[in-house]
Amino acid sequence: KGASGKWGIKHVVRSEVAPIMVSRSGEVIRRTDEELAADLLEPNVCIVKFETTKGPLKVRIVPSWAPKGAQRFMQLVADKYYADLAIYRAVPNFLIQFGVTNDMERTSKYQAIPDDLLRGVPIVDGTICFAAAGANTRTATVCIFLGEYPQLGGNPWETPVGKVCDESMGVLHSIFTGYGDMPQCGGAGPDPIQLEELGNDYIKENFPAC
To answer: Where is the PPIase cyclophilin-type domain (predicted)?
Structure first.
């Protein structure tokens, strides 16, 4: 926190990355529960607190899992990109997603980043990943998973960047998911295209429980 009272990144320390273990078939081997627990306690892990309508949601961002993704996430946090953004996608037993805004000045600052290497970090309850449309498309939209999904995480752009803190899992699971998925995925929930055009008023007027 600087003399002006504003938060910012003073310097960045280059972190060690989690080692990659590969099977004979060429698949990246999942890290053990013990290794994952140790990763979350590394000294360079950043704890970020989001204020939600359900209470504070604290997350741990782990640079050793995804150096590029973690750096982008912390850049977005430092820039207050996620301030006052709606959770527009909340699918029961699947995920919540946020990061869409109609503030073009805000979004124009960020270009897609290159993918990180897979490091055997599974997608489980509380895992945080960037939402992406394919290779090298991660930008600012983030999803947090509401369960374990072993069928996901096999692509580099799906590499987790962090995990919700244990004490915030109750808050995560209290977020309303009753509207279902977005229309592009066959649901009746908020439309991110409309959100991008109309802003949070679109959510407040049509999906007040979000």
So the answer is: 55-175
Give first-to-last CA distance, the chain, whole Å: 32
CATH class of 33-206: mainly beta
Quick one: 122 exposed, middle or buried, by C-beta within 10 A (0-12, 13-18, 19+)? middle
Q: pLDDT tens digits for 10-28?
A: 444 444 667 666 666 667 8
Cβ contact 159:131 at 8 Å: no
Residue 1 reports pLDDT greater than 90:
no
Instruction: Tell me how far apart the alpha carbons of residues 68 and 86 are, in angstroms, rounded to a whole number.
Output: 25
Q: How many residues does the chain have?
A: 210
Domain positions in the chain are 33-206
d(CA 20, CA 109) in angstroms, rounded, equals 32
Residue in the block written with tokens 């995560």: 172
Q: pLDDT tens, 53-87? A: 999 999 999 999 999 999 999 999 999 999 999 99
Task: Using alpha carbons, select from 153, 165, 157 the residue that is nearest to residue 123.
Answer: 153
